[in-house]
Design goal:
Shape: elongated
Number of helices: 26
Strand order of the largest sheet: 21-22-26-23-27-37
Length: 864
């Protein structure tokens, strides 16, 4: 029967490497650990608090009663001492408690080394800052503070000058436990480590790597190479010092990573870690020396067997630790580029979006690693460095270490606020271009608007930007791409850069194309509809410095205000450029200021021009009036048939959609619409029903003699343009035919009626089920600090139905970039509510972050 080994706190990759090793394996994992993988590989798996000696002892006794234990091995640093205590209590093979205790207590270790005549460093355990001052006075070369029982470089601070002492104490003291603060003489020279394996007190050096740190004051390890290619004298000096130290503390079994400072022929042991070294040392050892540390540890404990002495390297390896700026991670990109670098073996132990990175004062400021191989040490280091430089870990300043959604929101909002002045400046520049797509005289302005949009997206970091106007009769559109990181979705961000005509400029409080901020609103044509959409997308992309956590395609249309007549042809030709998993259309409105809204229904639209002819030519109203019909009066009577007495649309056969569940008070609507006192609202049902899910008909214009030029004449012909808004679910061509039929059938007095069909836009109803909508509800609710509501919009956005046809699998989110019911889009004094614009920028940022986090959670755990 094979020796029975119990691994305490081993991670899955360690358990996995023990397959085929001639031992019987049992794993004790930490409570709450997903044990699926361990259970598949180990003979039996138990779970308990591996840092609680009593709990671990009870678990070990249960295992021992089932099958006698031969050895216990701690595979996590926090379980080292409990495992030693339990093993000794049960009389099984384990590293002695004294050896583990001395390794973890640096001051005690130094005392033991001095007692045994092993080179050590001058030191003192300090309980207050004055004791540090006293010790510093004896060490003119400097003092290094660290927790006496610290590890992983935690709490290390260099003192070169008395003025450094308060800062160093403030850094180290909070990291120190009962053992206190260790002050030791600062040593200069070569810092390295020796990787060893022990069996029955016999030690074997496996490797002496090269080590690189961030330098003073904290000396955080940031890179390693293996083998270190040190001169043989250095290797021997370091190895001899480490063996002497291990003997001095009574270390018996398994791996150690022992840090050494070498100056001339003097080697001083700084720290003994009774485990194989971090930062992928175990993986580097396997690549370079062919030593599988998990297998070697098991063989040492089970059979007193040590790996063969190291001779020639099988490879040369380097590790580069990733050290992002401190703050909350909002995006992680470039992994595909880094992985593709020739020589990269692995990228792993990455922090995730939402994690808060501290300053690089210890190992917690590292966010992962790149492991690479090369023909020599420098080449391997260069490969690892180059790959690391391609990984972009985007952070924003963090107010706390909390990982909850509200903390993420607050940090992102503060970061956006620093960007918004620049975004506002660019929005103003876009507004100043009168890009009126309906007016041929402004064709050059529409192009200027597209070109400025393209330039801003290029400056935001787009991988490629195109101004596309290759569809006959179309207006220039802009498409920009920010490639998706591996396994991440792509989000299409839509806006349009064309605007409506201004109407009479005299009716504006300020010039329509000169942005004017008043009472928290930005007044100008296009401020809300929809150059704010462009600006919101720019703010989001700048937050991520052009490296969003998901793929982003920006599509800025140039003909939305004339009904997107060539959009279908555009999508057909450029389908591959616009494919996305989620589409965010920032061209709608919120239900109210401060209320995040997702537009789930849109009315369709069709229009016609009706011409009435009554006479061959105009005649004198006094001579012929009373018997002769005139076209203008006939037209008025015809138009009056389009509504019943209550104001309901009277065109037969038009449908209505189910009434929405949103409360839209009538008084509020009257105020927002500017309805005069005493004027009744049209139609029946709730306000929301009338303006979102029922048809609406409007006479847009009438061609007739102006009042100023009127004469006593019976008009021969008159024309009117009629717009019909269609309920969600209506068929636009069918509705247009019904309107035309109505006009022809209700012509008064037998006048001739000719109807010219205009453009048509389909209505749309969004299916709001699926993960993208759940993520949107969370993101927008967080940004506005209120529940996201589903609303309808009486307007028509042909792009949605067109895009839905082209990409039926994409989730379509119709949002507001700050527009609200009082924004007066298409009207005089159009304006953007600036606080809600900020909220919209924040919501869209959180949406991309949460989509990335959601997708990251759905992926298998990264290799570690």
């Amino acid at each position: 029967m094979f020796p029975h080994l119990v691994f305490v706190g081993a991670r899955p990759e360690i358990i996995g490497k023990l397959l085929g090793v001639p031992v019987t394996l049992t794993a004790i994992v930490r409570t709450g650990t997903d044990e699926t993988f361990e259970r598949k590989l180990a003979l039996r798996t138990f779970s308990t608090d591996v840092t609680d000696t009593d709990a671990l002892l009870a678990c070990a006794r249960e295992i021992h009663a089932w099958r006698p234990i031969d050895a216990m091995i701690a595979a996590t640093e926090h379980a080292l001492l409990p495992t030693a205590i339990v093993g000794e209590a049960m009389g099984v093979r384990v590293n002695p408690v004294e050896a583990v205790t001395l390794a973890q207590d640096k001051a005690a270790m130094r005392r033991r080394l001095a007692e045994r005549g092993v080179e050590t460093v001058a030191h003192r355990v300090c309980t207050d800052i004055e004791e540090v001052r006293d010790f510093f006075a004896t060490c003119p070369g400097g003092v290094l503070l660290k927790p006496a029982d610290g590890n992983g470089g935690r709490g290390v601070a260099l003192i070169r000058h008395p003025d450094d002492i308060p800062r160093a104490w403030a850094h180290t003291a909070p990291e120190s436990r009962e053992a206190g603060v260790l002050a030791e003489e600062f040593l200069t020279g070569l810092e390295t480590s020796v990787e060893t394996m022990s069996a029955g007190g016999e030690h074997r050096a496996l490797m002496v790597p090269a080590k690189h740190t961030s330098g003073p004051p904290h000396f955080v390890e940031i890179a390693h190479q293996m083998p270190g290619e040190h001169p043989p004298t250095i290797v021997k000096t370091a190895t001899d010092a480490v063996f002497a130290a291990l003997d001095a503390i009574g270390y018996m079994w398994g791996p150690t990573n022992t840090e050494v400072m070498i100056e001339g022929d003097r080697a001083t042991v700084v720290e003994i870690n009774p485990r194989w070294g971090g930062a992928r040392y175990w993986e580097m050892l396997e690549l370079v020396a062919g030593v599988d540390m998990a297998e070697a540890t098991a063989m040492a404990y089970a059979y007193d067997r040590l790996p063969a002495p190291f001779e020639a390297p099988a490879a040369t390896c380097a590790v580069r630790l990733l050290t992002p700026p401190p703050g909350r991670i909002v995006a992680l990109t470039g992994l595909d580029k880094a992985t593709a670098v020739d020589g990269v073996v692995r990228i792993g132990e990455l922090n995730r979006i939402g994690d808060v990175m501290p300053s690089l004062t210890d190992f917690r400021g590292r966010a992962g690693y790149v492991l690479a191989t090369g023909p020599d040490r420098q080449a391997a280091a260069d490969i690892a460095e180059r790959a690391a430089s391609l990984i972009d870990i985007r952070t924003v300043p963090a107010a706390s270490n909390a990982k909850d959604d509200a903390s993420m929101r607050d940090d992102v909002r503060q970061a956006l606020r620093k960007l918004l002045p620049g975004v506002r400046s660019d929005l103003d520049a876009l507004i100043r271009i009168p890009s009126i797509s309906a007016d041929p005289a402004h064709a050059a302005d529409v192009r200027r608007s597209a070109e400025l949009t393209a330039r801003l997206l290029e400056e935001a970091g787009a991988a490629d930007v195109q101004v596309l106007d290759d569809i006959e009769g179309g207006r220039p559109a802009v498409v920009a791409h920010f490639p998706a990181p591996p396994d991440m979705p792509t989000v299409l961000l839509y806006a349009h850069h064309d605007v409506q005509p201004t109407g009479d400029p005299a009716g504006w409080t300020s010039p329509p194309f000169e942005p004017d901020e008043r009472d928290g609103r930005l007044f100008a044509r296009g401020s809300a509809d929809d150059k704010a959409g462009i600006a919101a997308h720019l703010a989001v992309l700048r937050l991520f410095d052009g490296h969003p956590p998901v793929g982003v395609t920006v599509f800025v249309e140039g003909e939305e205000e004339i009904g997107s007549p060539t959009l279908g042809a555009f999508l057909e030709r450029h389908r591959d450029k616009l494919t996305a998993d989620v589409c965010v259309l920032a061209d709608s409105t919120n239900l109210d200021v401060g209320t995040p809204s997702l537009t789930t229904t849109l009315r369709g639209m069709t229009d016609v021009v009706v011409e009435v002819r009554a006479l061959e030519h105009s005649v004198h109203s006094g001579i012929y009036g009373g018997a002769t019909p005139d076209a203008l009066t006939a037209l008025c009577r015809l138009l009056a048939t389009l509504h019943n007495d209550e104001g309901e649309v009277a065109v037969e056969g038009l449908i209505s959609a189910p009434a929405p569940k949103v409360d839209y008070p009538e008084e509020r609507f009257r105020t927002e619409a500017g309805v005069l006192d005493g004027v009744r609202l049209l139609g029946n049902g709730s306000v929301a029903e009338r303006i979102w899910t029922k048809p609406a008909l409007t006479v847009l214009a009438i061609d007739a003699t102006p009042v100023a030029k009127a004469s006593n004449t019976l008009t021969a012909t008159a024309r009117a343009k009629i717009s019909l808004r269609l309920a969600p679910g209506e068929d636009a061509p069918s509705a247009q035919r019904k309107l035309i039929e109505h006009l022809r059938e209700h012509a008064p007095w037998g006048v001739e009626v000719e109807v010219s069909a205009g453009k048509a836009g389909r209505p749309y109803a969004v299916d709001t089920t699926g993960p993208a909508f759940e993520t949107a509800r969370s993101a927008y609710g967080l940004a506005y600090d209120g529940d996201l509501v589903h609303i309808g919009v009486g307007g028509t956005i042909p792009f949605i139905a067109e895009f839905s046809d082209a990409f039926p699998d994409a989730a379509i989110l119709v949002t507001s970039a700050g527009a609200d019911p009082d924004c007066r889009a298409h009207g005089l004094d159009e304006s953007l509510h600036l606080a809600d614009f900020e909220n919209a920028c924040l919501a869209e940022s959180l949406l991309l972050i949460q989509l990335a986090r959601q997708n990251d959670k759905n992926q298998p755990a990264r290799a570690i």
